[in-house]
Amino acid sequence: MALQHAQIDRPQVNRFLRRKGLTAVADKSKSGHLQSFGLAPDVVFDVGVDLGTPFLYGAFPDARFVLVDPRVESRAVLNDAKTPKKAQFFETALGRMPGRMTLNIPFSDKGEHGEMASLGTRTDRISSTFTRIEAREVAVTTLDLLAADFPGRVGLKIDTEGFEDEVLAGAKQTLKRTDFVILELSLTKRFAGIAPPSQIITRLAAAGLEFRDVLRMTGDGKGGGAPRLMDVLFTRWHSPDPA
Predict the structure, then answer these.
(1) How many Å apart are CA 154 and CA 52, to the nearest integer?
(2) pTM of the model as a whole
(3) How many domains, in total, are found in the chain?
């Protein structure tokens, strides 16, 4: 017997949430929503690939994609049917200067958490759930050095677990031809020495990129508490000049 989906009374659900001190927030990490901004990058850099970013790939089917992650395990994304055929994978971290750094990969009773691997030291309450940390030495380059071989207008997604500002610091030239940035913006001190939100917003504003939308928000797990992070979209206020 087929399962029947119950009709959702949205106003009633919203009233229930408000009584509990909660609000439903839309997840706008969708290809169609991103396309609504009229963006047309020639090349898109997915920095911090992990298992891939399907909504980003689907939004720009004609773009060239550069997938960047210091974990060799993330190279498997090239075999995913949702990954663009015009994609290249680079096994490296990005920062403000080339070199080598230690990547901290956490493990819990559930196994490896590659999505939470970071070049920083995690200090939030989630770190108390880890059973061990694998320290892996990885290569680091800058986005400017990597992007030099990829001409044209740029799209940029950064999810590097607290290292986003370091990636931007090494992308001064690339940001001049970047039309949008999607990044994980930490709203709490999740890592030791993490840049405050204003520093990242100011850096992108100086490059002509403005805060345009919150695609997704993650709370602190305490039921109505302050958000820990947001996936934020920055775009140019005016149409970019041709490359």
Answers:
(1) 18
(2) 0.88
(3) 1
Taking the chain (243 residues) in runs of 10, the rounded mean pLDDT of each run is 53 69 75 95 97 96 97 95 94 98 94 92 90 96 98 98 96 98 94 94 97 87 70 88 49
Classify residue 243: in a domain, yes or no. no
Q: What is the CATH number of the domain that holds 46?
A: 3.40.50.150
**176 is in which domain, residue-wise?**
29-80+143-236
Instruction: List the alpha helices (DSSP H) in the chain.
Output: 10-19, 31-35, 54-59, 143-147, 164-169, 172-175, 197-206
Concatenated DSSP letters of 143-198: HHHHHTTS-S-EEEEE--TT-HHHHHHT-HHHHTTEEEEEEEEESS--BTTPPPHH
- The verdict on residue 211 lying in a domain is yes
